[in-house]
Records
---
Amino acid sequence: MTLRTDWTLDEVHAIYNQPVLELVTQAAAIHAETQATGEVQVCTLLSVKTGGCPEDCAYCPQAARYHTGVQAHKLLPDAEVLASAQRAKDSGSTRFCMGAAWREIRDNKDFDRVLGMVEQVNGLGLEVCCTLGMLNEYQAERLKQAGLYAYNHNLDTSREKYDDIITTRTYDDRLNTLEHVRKAGISVCSGGIIGLGETDEDRIAMLHTLATLPAHPESVPVNALVPVAGTPLADQPRVSVWEMLRMIATARILMPHTMVRLSAGRQEMPVTEQALCFLAGANSIFSGEKLLTTPNPDFDADKQMFALLGLKPRKSFKDVPEGAVLMGRGKAPVEA
C-alpha cells in the first residue's frame, strides 16, 4: 500500500464523516492488509518526575497552577525506575515509557540521570520511550545515543483550538520538537486528546496535520480526556465510544503502517467498547494501574481481555530489520 503524506483536508473530512459502520469496515480492511491482526503492543508509562509543571495545559493535573491533589516529586531513584521496568516486562509490556513533568529538557544533572535510565531500561530488552517536553536537536541526539527508541510529544488538538487549551508554548513549538526527534532517528509518537471541548472539525484538522507531516508518526496515541477536579476541564463530559472509533478508524486509514494507540480513558471503557476500537485499527494499549497520574486498567485485567478476545502481545523491536541487534549506548541497529 502506498503511503500518502499529501492528504487534503477535504479528503480527511470525507473519511471521518462516513457512516460509522462503513468507516470501521474500511479501517478494518486496511488494518488487515498492513498490520498483524490480533496483535496488540502492551506499553507501560511511568511518571519519573511528577507535578510542579509551569505550563497551563487545561487538562493536566500536574500543572503547578491547579489544585488537583497531585503530590509533586523529584526524579525517582534509578533503582525504582529499573524495578518498575522489570515488573512491566514480566507482566507482558514490550515498551516502557518514562514521563517527566517538564516544560522542556534542560541540559543539567536531571537530564543526565534520565539518559542513564534510558540506557538501563534499554538493557532489559524493552523499547524505551520518553515524554519530557520540548527538546532541541542536540538533546534528541543525546537521547538517541543513550538508546532511546521513541519519543512522545502530542499535538493535543488542532492548531485552531490549541490556544484555548495551552498558552505557555505554541503549536509550532510542538512541531519543531517532532522534527528534532525525527532528524535524530528516533521513532516519533504523537497524537492528541479528544473531549477538550473541540469540534469534529478540530479533530479532523489534527489528524490531517499528523498525516501530512514529512513522515507519518510511527505511533499515534488517541486519548480520551480523563477530567480531573481542579483543572479547567474538570466538568467535560465523557467521550463516547463512537467518537473514539471515528478517531481510531480515520487514523488507521490515513496512516496504515502507524501504531494507533488506544490510550487515556480506557479505564472507563468496557471490554466490548475496547474490542470495537481494536476492530477499527487500534493495535496498542498502555497497561498498568496508572497512566502518569490518572487511573488505568491493570495488567491482570488486560491479560483477561486478551484471553477473551484472542489477542496476542506484539514483541519488542518488531520494526527493527530482521538480523539487526540493538547495541548499547550510542549504537544504532547493526547486522548480526
---
Amino acid sequence: MENLEQLEKHLREIQAWEKDQKDLWFWEKLGRIPFKILDKMTPAFLQNKIALLVDELGSYIQSGGQYLINEQTMLQKIRNDSSFHNIFSISDIGQIPLEDMIALSDKLQNERVKLATVQGASTGFGGIFTLAIDIPFILGMALKTLQEIAIIHGYNPNDKVERIFIVKCLQFSSADIVGKEAILKELSSMHNTNHAAEDMISQLQGWQEVFFTYRDQFGWKKLFQMIPVAGMIFGAYANKGMIQDVAEAGIMLYRKRRIYEKINELDKQ
C-alpha cells in the first residue's frame, strides 16, 4: 500500500489541477452567451422536453431515480481489473491501492468519452430534432459516470450524501471561477460537520440551478449542432468535451477525498 510520501505527491498533483481550474478559456466564456439567443429560437417541443427533464432529474438527489447504476456489475468490473480480487462490497474498494483507482478511473473516462463522442455525432446528424434526444442522454451519462467514479474510489452513490457530492461535481465541471472556488470550499468541509450535507442541499436551491448552469456550458457548440449533417462534427466535439470535463472533475475530487482518508488511516497507525 501507499506510504505518506506517495499520497502527498498525488495530493500535490490534485492541488495543481485545482489551481488550473480557476480560469476559463476565452471561447468557453463566450460559449455561455448564445443560449440566451437559442432559447428564443428553440421550438416549443424542445423547450417542453427540457422542462420535463428538469422535473425528472429533480428526484435524483432524493431517491436516485432511474439514474442509479447496477452496483454488482460495477463491483465485478473492479474485481476483474484490480490487483485486489477480494472485493464483495463498495466499502472493500476503499482499501485497494490508489494506483488501481487511478487506472480504473482512466479506463472508465476513456470508455465514456468515446461513447459520448459517437452519441454526439449520431444525434448531430439530425440537427435540432435529435438534439432533444442528445441533451437527456448526455446528462444521464454524466450522472452515471460520476456514480461509477464514486464506486471506484469506495463511496456508495446510493447514499444521499454521495448524490449531493455527485451533483456538486457536475456543478464544478461547468462553473465559473467564483463557483469553482465556492464548491471546493463546500466539498472540503462536507465531512467535517454533521449538518454539511443538509447545508449543501439548501445551497443547491433545487436541481434547476445545476441543470441550467450545465446546459449553458453547451453554448455555441450545441447551437451549431442544430444544423443537420454539419451538426455531427459539433455534436461529437461538444459531447466529448462535456463528459471529459465531468469525468475529470469527479475523478480528481473523489481521489482527493480518498487520499485524505488514506492519510488519516496512516496517522492512526
---
Amino acid sequence: MSEHEPTHSTAADVARRMDTTKPHSARFWNYFVGGKDNYEADREVGDKIKEIFPGLVDVAVTSRHFLSRAITCLAAEHGVRQFLDIGTGLPTADNTHEVAQRVAPDARIVYVDNDPLVLVHARTLLSSTPEGATDYLDADLYDPDAVLRAAAGTLDLTQPVALVLLNVLGHVADHAEARSLVNRLMAGLPSGSYLVIGDSTATSEGMIAASETYNASGAVPYYVRPVDELAAFFDGLDVLEPGIVRITRWRPGPDGASGAAPDVDAYGGVGRKP
C-alpha cells in the first residue's frame, strides 16, 4: 500500500502499476455487472466463482442499487451535499456523483481509489454539474489522514460529509484495523456526517467458498465478515432505519430490481455521526 500523499497520476504512472496477469477486485466486479473493463484473469476466476456460487453476481448488481438508494436518501431527505467515496471501483451507471447531483446539482463529490485501471477511467468520474464539483484522488484507505487532507481541497470538512465505503473494507484482513481506519476517517468529519457501508458477508457456505476461491487466485485477498462485525463499524453512530440489513432490504424502491432480488449475502446500513 502506498504511503505517499494522494496524487493525480499520469498515464505512465498508471501503466507501470497495472498487472493484468492477476485478478483485481475492481475488474472482477466489473465483469460481474456486465462491464467490459476486465481481463482474462478476472474473467477466469469470475467464471469459476459463478459455478461455485452464482449468487455473487446478485451481490454485485444489488450493491449498485443499494448505493443509489443510500445516496438519494442522504441528498433528498437529509440535505447532504458532500460525499467522500473511498474504493470507488470502475465507473458504471449511476455513480455517486450522478445520483447525488441528480437530486442536488450543487453536490460535491471526491472519489478515492488506488487501482491503476480505475485511474484510467477517472475522467468519467470527473464530470459535474456547473453548480457542483467532483474530484478524483489516487490515494489509499490505509492513510486516512492523507485522504482527508487531500479531500479538503474540494470538500468543506467543517460541514457534513457522507463517507461511502462500498465493498472495500474486506481488503483489510484484521477487523480491529478496519474499524480503526473507519473511526479515523469519521473522526475527521464533523457532527451531522454520515457513514454508508455495504459489503459481502459470511452468511452462507457459498459466499465463504467464493471468497476462498477468489483469495486463492493470486488477487489481493478479500475477506467476508459476519454481520455483527460489519455492524460494529457503526458503533457510536445513530443508525438510520431499517438498520443494518441485507442490502436488498435497505429501503427497497419501486425500481423492481431491488424489491425482487434474492436475499443476497451482503449487508449494509447508513449511520449519522451525533
---
Amino acid sequence: MAVPESTRLMLELEGTVEENLNRHLTVAKEWMPHEYVPWSEGKNFAELGGEPWDPEQSRVSPIARTSLEVNLLTEDNLPSYHREIERAFGRDGAWGTWVHRWTAEEGRHGICIRDYLLVTRAVDPVELERARMQTMQAGYDSGDKALLNVFAYVSFQELATRISHRNTGKYTQDPLCEKLLARVAMDENLHMLFYRNLVQASLELSPDAMMRAITDEVIQFQMPGAVIPSFTRKAALIAKAGIYDLRIHHDEVIWPLLRQWKIFELEGLGEEGEKARDELDQFLKALETQASRFEERRAAAEARSAARRA
C-alpha cells in the first residue's frame, strides 16, 4: 500500500520539527502575564457596587480600542486554532509536543491582554464579552488545509499577528500597553520562525507542491480574526490608521518571508512549481498597485481633513 503524501512528509520532516522545537525551547524566555497588568488601577464594575464602563475612562483613542479588541478577539479563538493545528500535525512525537507548547504559549496572550484592558478600563467590557461569545461560537475553520498549506499560512499569519500587536501597542501611546503587546509579539515571532523553517525544509523535499501552497496562501490570505463581528469595518479603520494595511502586509509580511525562502531565485522547479511562481509574481504586482492606491487615497483624505481644520 502506498504511503499518503502527507504521511511521507511528516515522517521526513520529523527531524526538522524536533530540531526546531528544541531550538524554540532553548530561546523562548519564561514570562509571567500578571507582571504586565497594573492591578492597582483596577476597581469594581457596577454589579459589585462600582462604576459601569464609560468611554471617558479609557486612556486610548477609539481606533486604538478597536485594534485592541480585534487583537484580543483573535487570540480568544485559540480552541479552534488548536483543533486545526492538531488535526494537521497530530499528537505524536515532536509534532504533538509542538502543538501543545504552541497552544500553551498562545493562551497567555488572551489572558494578559484581557486582564490589562479590563483593569485599565481601556475598552467596553460588555461589548468585548458579547463579541467574544459571537467569535468563539463562530469558531475558526481552515477548510482542512493540506499540510504544506498549513505551513505556509501560519508562517504569514504569525508574522502578521506579530506586526499587528506591535503596531497596536505603539498606536495606543500608552507605555504599559506597548510593553505588554511587544512581549506578546516576541512569542508570535518565535512561532513564525518555527513555521518558516518548516516551509524551508519542505521546499527542499517537495519544491513544486510547497511553491503551490505558498502561492495559494498568499493569494487567498485572510486573517483568522475575519470571523469577528463587524471585522471588515474594523479592519478598514485599522488600515486607515496605518496600524495594519495593504502596504504593511505586502512589505513587512509577504516579502520578508519570500526573500527568506529565496522564492524567486529557487532553481529546479517543475512545470507546476513554475506555474505557481508565475501566479505569485503576477499577484504581487497587483497587490503592490493596490497598496499604492490605498496609500494615495488615505493621503488625500488626510489632506482634506487637515484643510477643513485649518
